[in-house]
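Lab meeting tomorrow. Look over both lines:
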Amino acid sequence: MKGVNILLPLPPRRTTGTPLDISEINWLSVWCTRFTVNFGHIFLLKDPQVPRRMNLSRFQRMFAPGQISSDVVELLDDKTIYIPNFFLTVGLLKGYKFRASRRESPEKFEIDVPNENNRLDDLRDYNGRDITLTLNGKISFYDLRHVGVYDTINGRVIGQVDIPSPEELEGFPLPPALGQNLQWWPKFVYPASTSRPHIDTTSRNFNPIGPTYSTPTPPPKIYELPNCREFLGRRVRVLWQSNPDDIYFRVQAKTKESDFAALGFVDPNSRVGSKGIEADIVKIYMNSSKDSLSGSNSLPTFAVVDSFISSTAHCTLRNGLCADADHGSKNNVILVDHNRQADISTVDFIKPKKALDRHDTFISENDHTEVIVGIGSLRSLSRWMDHQEHEFNMENGTIDFNSQANTSYLYKTPQTCLETGKEDPESALRWKVPFRLKPYLRKFEVRLGPTGGSRGYKAITGEEPPFNELCWWINGAIMPEITVYRGETYYFKIQGGDSDVLGHAYYHPFYITTDPVGGFSEKHETDQRREKIFAGVERPYEYNAVATAKGSLCYHQSKTGQDRWRESRTFKEYQSTLEVVCEGGSNSNYGLLNWTVEENTPDLVYYQSYTHEGLGWKIHVLDKDAGMVLKPMNVVLLVNVVFLLV
């Protein structure tokens, strides 16, 4: 190498496995192990002043308390800031952006800060995500005094974090941004020969003839693509080059071998239902062959499937999409190359700009195209097994595919991806879950509450918490499992909101159902009829169904305004950080549900929210003769003690 800047991570200690500290090293050399020759070395200082990450404060709410919060923010280096457990509620409002200010008293936030996807788009809701932001250009935190969320329409700061003075940063000291916090993506190296890269003709989706618009064989791989966008918190990277009739794509996704990635294109003209589809999707996944998923040394192969989304045909990201070829159309996508390094799958393919059949959409030649990017699981999760549905994450955006160098109204230069990022840390601490209520209980108090993050909801269900970050709390526990007996009557007191006056997100009638997901009122009529309801809804299968188990809105929330599930080593400790709050002080207004368990009730049913999916959990139904547990009684034994005097 010549004139190259390199970063060397220190090796782990042999005893503990944690990385060595620079203060433990005396000298560093370039050493030839074969001939035991020292090509050059440097001596390190005895007590070096090592730059380290700097902890700041949590986000300060400047307007509308409860709209924004986070855990303690860190400066990773002089251009990178890490915001853990970030919450922001903006709904459908526009104009919210990350901004920074140079001034001691921040009258004006004039410097744009890209979001975690290196975009300057309006911010959406954040529900406890850990995000990393990187400053653009030559500016650093030495130049700034505040970073916050700014309402550009009304000219006000929603929340902010104060940055120490340059003297404090220099004296700490703060690490320079030398690439230590870069997101790793595969580097492409040109092959030694100029021959065409190998094309996998064994893929189930390889078409030796190809679509009518192209040549019989796929073109060679293009190594340098001029445009790039990142989605899903930099879990997916989309690179492309636009040609007159088609677009050459490279999709890089951080996925498991059992996941699929999806890149979709929304045709505005199809929304009226003329074509019956909502989006044209390219589905990418690793072939589940013995060679690719077993212990074989052969390289894995990938498939790219021309697919589509259609709610009328029940083809969604959640159920794995529908392939064009299975519905009378052709696979109009050409696989060019594929690769997998570590946990990153990279697939190159070509897609035509024109719609070649009824399941395709066109890519606009004079405007932005709305795109859908998603990651889903090919394996059915246990909770969705009855419906054969899949876990997925999705993000929408717009891209202008009209030129080689994408010059949208936000970017006057070719659009590129910033090489930064940080994996979401997973805590090793776990609470003792699932929670199970005593089987002799007959009365239950039901309220809403926080999900408890990965130690609560995710540890219980194996899934990510719902978008609104709420779930049912019963008798003070997060989503406990309940045991009931056939023929017995049980009494529920519910406080989940009695109307949608405070917003649809705070209206949650309680009901008991066979469906593991819930959200009965939001389902299509055909899906409603598949669901059997045992309590909480009158006339469920008629047009005038009524939810009956409603009450005032009461919920568990943090006493300090900051959810402490990450810091709580036990659930009991977490409980102590919460308090019950009722809107309007109506803490005595309950919705009542009396449920007598019928003899034909299945062994497993669920308590859920009538208006939202995924807030509830399991009810185990047993026969009385299966060992019914009675409530323990306090028994007092009176013992007469006689003393014999001898």
Summary: The CA atoms of residues 8 and 504 lie 52 Å apart. The chain has a mean pLDDT of 78. The helical segments are 166-171, 290-293, 457-461, 525-530, 571-575.
